């Protein structure tokens, strides 16, 4: 028997936000945030190509402005893109008008109906405003690959452990 899933705090607060796609098929939805940047994005694209895998890149508008060729490569190789604000602004520290403007500024460069708030920090008013226009995408598994102290093996273990928690949780 599969237990009903207890919603996370984020899902209770942010109704309609996407954290996970439930389905019969075994599938993972890979997302990469904060690019496009020359230090990481081309490498990620090369690896995805090697495995014939597609992903969604939540792009920072200012990085798209600085690195349009890498952004174009993401598009050319059939991946999806999402809005991640123009300056990677923190929703908890930014007044609503300024926040929405920053999202819209990113939208002039990133044509997408997907939005992911940087740091996952978004006020309820900001959320309710943006969800009229965007699908707000959060996540359920975080590899913590942004932590410079962690290596690839550590990140893999983190994902494996969190995934196992999900499996144990869902199956009784
Ligand atoms: Zn980010």
Describe the secondary structure blueprint for this structure:
Elements: H1 9-13, E1 31-33, H2 41-50, E2 56-59, H3 61-66, H4 68-76, E3 80-83, H5 96-107, E4 114-115, H6 124-130, E5 135-136, H7 152-170
Bound molecules: zinc ion.
Zinc ion binds at residues 33-34, 84, 88, 118.
Short description:
This protein is mainly α and 172 residues long.
**Can you give the mean pLDDT?**
91
Question: What number of structural domains do the residues give?
Answer: 1
CA radius of gyration is 17 Å
Order of helices and strands: HEHEHHEHEHEH
- What class, by secondary structure content? mainly alpha
CATH-level-4 superfamily name = Glycoside hydrolase/deacetylase
- CATH topology group: TIM Barrel
Q: How would you explain this protein's 3D organization?
A:
By secondary structure, the chain is mainly alpha-helical. It has a single domain (about 10-140), classed as TIM Barrel (Alpha-Beta Barrel), CATH 3.20.20.370. Helix content is about 40%, strand content about 10%. α2 links the parallel β1 (about 30-35) and β2. The structure holds zinc ion. Zinc ion binds next to loops.
């Amino acid at each position: 028997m599969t237990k009903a899933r207890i919603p996370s705090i984020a899902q209770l607060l942010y109704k309609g936000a996407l954290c996970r796609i439930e389905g019969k098929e075994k599938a993972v939805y890979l997302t990469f945030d904060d690019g496009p940047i020359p230090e990481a994005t081309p490498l990620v694209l090369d690896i995805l190509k090697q495995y014939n895998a597609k992903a969604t890149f939540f792009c920072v508008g200012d990085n798209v402005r600085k690195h349009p060729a890498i952004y174009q490569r993401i598009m050319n190789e059939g991946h999806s893109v999402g809005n991640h604000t123009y300056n990677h602004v923190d929703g908890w520290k930014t007044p609503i008008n300024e926040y929405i403007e920053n999202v819209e500024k990113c939208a002039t460069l990133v044509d997408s109906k997907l939005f992911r708030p940087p740091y996952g920090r978004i006020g309820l008013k900001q959320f309710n405003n943006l969800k009229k226009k965007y699908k707000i995408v959060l996540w359920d598994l975080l590899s913590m690959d942004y932590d410079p102290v962690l290596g690839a093996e550590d990140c893999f273990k983190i994902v494996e452990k969190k995934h196992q928690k999900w499996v144990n949780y869902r199956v009784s």
